[in-house]
Specification:
Blueprint (H helix, E strand, L loop, with lengths): L2 E6 L9 E6 L8 H10 L1 H10 L7 E5 L9 E6 L10 H19 L3 E4 L11 H14 L6 E6 L2 H11 L1
Parallel strand pairs: 1-6, 2-4, 2-5, 5-6
Antiparallel strand pairs: 3-4
Helix pairs in contact: 3-4, 4-5
InterPro entries: Macro_dom (IPR002589), Macro_dom-like (IPR043472)
Protein name: O-acetyl-ADP-ribose deacetylase
Pfam families: Macro
Length: 166
Amino acid sequence: MARVEVVQGDITREDVDAIVNAANSSLRGGGGVDGAIHRAAGPRLKEAGAALAPCPPGEAVATPAFDLDPPVRHVIHTVGPVWKGGTRDEASLLASCYRRSVEVADSLGARSVAFPAISTGIYGYPPDQAARIAVDTVRSVPTRVELIRLVAFDRVTYDLLTAALD
């Protein structure tokens, strides 16, 4: 079972084998975490993502990390659900994002992976519910990944993830 930890910071600066991108289905970049990862990885990330698109909600695919600093070797792109009030299978789609991303990390041989808070920005997923799903899912997925780091951009998200972990 992977060790799960919560930190606050910039996911593009994490010292891990792979980082997860909260992407849109085009995999060409966007705002928030997606935009930050694309800026840090450089323009080849957009080209590599476009070649794999479209990616449906709940799925995950990987590209090289390009210009991200080592040891980051991979970017795992996952498309979270847009919140529609919780009546459109959003919880299972969000859990699938975390589960599929860990499975992709396993297939790449990654021993450490960092996740952002998927779907809690522009996609509107309630952060407290998303934190519980994130923690419960990464704890329950069988994996050879040794470290799963949940990276909060702000203090509120950090506190929610920490509470869910406890």
